[in-house]
Amino acid sequence: MAVSCASSSLASSLPHDFDSQKLSFLSTLKTCKSIQELKQIHASIIKTMPFPETQLPFSTKLSALCTQSFLIDPRYALSLLTQLRTPNLPLYNAIIRGLSISDNGSIEGLVVYKEMLSKGIVPDNYTIPFVLKACAESGAVREGEEVHGQAIKMGLASDVYVSNTLMRMYAVCYVIRSARKVFDFSPRRDLVSWTTMIQGYVKTGFAREGIGLFFEMYRENLQADGMTMVIVLSACARLGGLRLGRKLHRYITSNSNVNLDVFVGNALVDMYLKCGASNFARKVFQEMPVKNVVSWNSMISGLAQKGEFKESLSMFRKMQRLGVKPDDVTLVAVLNSCANLGILELGKWVHAYIDRYQIKADGFIGNALVDMYAKCGSIDQAYWVFQGMNHKDVYSYTAMIVGFAMHGQGEKALELFSEMPKMGIQPDEVTFVGVLTACSHVGLVEEGRKYFENMSIIYNLRPQLEHYGCMVDLLGRAGLINEAEEFIRKMPIEPDAFVLGALLGACKIHGKVEIGERVMKKIEKIEPRKDGAYVLMSNIYSSANRWRDALKLRKAMKERNLMKTPGCSSIELDGVIHEFQKGDKSHPNTKEIYNLLGEIANHLKNNGLLPHTSLLS
């Protein structure tokens, strides 16, 4: 209706010699429905009337149409500016708005805004938010502060739409104090104001402050909506506060303003899993009337991150049965679970799925495939995937280096590490765990020392407990027990049970009873309720024929109610993992399994092969 009126008004103001063809153009413009159609009409006008002065009435009309939301093409509208003697504010608003939401156009939007000001056109409460959005998209906080100052001078800063956009701009640019200042001085706050400020806190790492502001909003008797609750639940997930999460869940169910849709449901599932309450997560998931792939990913990834790998794969199989198509996030989580359980067959199925649907085995998926194959014992297949990756990052190299180290191929691991600087890839702390492990397995003591020193000298990485543990293991395996003990004594950080355990393990291999006793006393103080060190020390005594001391230690374990953790082994058969613990007879084929083990033992004995028990705990 507005376009029709504008067309009628323009037609009545035209000169008498304005011919029917030109009026036809106006009529066509009135019914224009798309930007492509608009450009075609404009091309016809230019062809029919090549002189700018004859095009002017149409340029005015075209620019008016460009301000319609469904016809915005910022760069096309920009071209019309050159044809207008007096461009108006709505056209500038349309152009700045279009540029602020277009790819790589936000900087250009700021340039157009400055040009508008230079022509004496005064911005309004629509212009400022578009310009601030352009500042946020381009990270131009200094320009945003200038726009803020202009908004104050023109009396626009008190407008709620302007103040909300100011808060968002400051939050996106990580100037959270300025965002809070705008919030505090806003004369009027709506739900968007509160949600924007809460989101700003959460996005910039101040989850606790975001939660605090939510409860302040609650005390102001302002009801949250679904978007607010998704943000608040994400803050709760970061804090890992289950009690708070349960409180928020009750608020959602009792608040009619919050629609328990798929987005809120996904946020609840994610929150419960990150707070360690998988049962609550399952309940919410099961009760969700609508689920999308993000819902399934929340459960599959969340369970895997909690170490519940079997449950994660069980959820994936259920997802498959229901015909839900997995995405990259799903596949990475499934591969992670396969890697940790050693389920090679399912891992291969995921790889075949990736190939079938022509998904690029790069980035997260490629890295997950390399890690899965390496941990499932297929190191050659892991390297084949690694070599086929077009884009490798530090995680790709680290997964492969750690994989080679795990398989005793230390030389290959170190060769790969030397390739990283040539590719412009900086190693991280986990990379050096793989490198030091490789040195330990191959017995490269001097090389290990060099890499450990280079961590801080060349790569500016501070060694963590894992790296000290690797060094102790390296020295211990090489028989340098005294040096390993001295290395621990000079550590700048307090050694943990992992570091001391590496030395205790070396004492067992090399029969160093006295040093073992000193180490045992330290471990006992750190982990008095763990059985591992007691068992290891007992075996050290047994190996040295100090049976009385071994028995005394076993007795101390019994008095402290420390039960030895039973040994566990597993095997994959037809995609199913079968686990066995020492003395376990729960498997349905237990009788056949023990009969076969007996036959193998007799065969070994008959051929003069006896087990080497000195390394058994």
Give a quick summary of the entry.
The chain is an all-alpha fold. It has helices at residues 2-12, 20-30, 35-48, 52-66, 74-81, 89-101, 106-118, 127-138, 141-153, 160-172, 176-185, 191-203, 207-219, 226-239, 242-254, 262-274, 278-287, 293-305, 309-321, 328-341, 344-356, 363-375, 379-388, 394-406, 410-419, 429-442, 445-457, 465-477, 481-489, 497-510, 513-526, 532-543, 547-559, 590-606; strands at residues 568-573, 576-581.
Write down how many β-strands occur, each being a DSSP E stretch of 2 or more residues: 2
Please indicate the percent range of residues in DSSP E strands (runs of 2 or more).
under 5%
State the secondary-structure class: mainly alpha
How much helix is in the residues? 55-70%
What is the global morphology? elongated
Please tell me how large the radius of gyration is.
Answer: 34 Å
Number of contiguous helices: 34
- What is the mean predicted local confidence, pLDDT? 85
The largest sheet is: 2 strands, antiparallel
- Reading side by side through the largest sheet, how are the strands ordered? 1-2
Identify low-pLDDT runs: 1-18
What's the end-to-end separation, in Å? Answer: 87 Å
Sum up the structure in keywords.
2% strand, disordered N terminus, mainly alpha, 617 residues, two-stranded antiparallel sheet, 34 helices
Structure in words:
The structure is a single chain. With 617 residues, the chain is mainly α. 69% of the residues lie in helices and 2% in strands. A two-stranded antiparallel ribbon has the order 1-2. Helix 6 (89-101) packs antiparallel against helix 7. The longest helix is centred in the C-terminal third of the chain and has 17 residues, at 590-606. It starts with a helix and ends in an 11-residue tail after the last helix. Mean pLDDT is 85; it is low at 1-18.
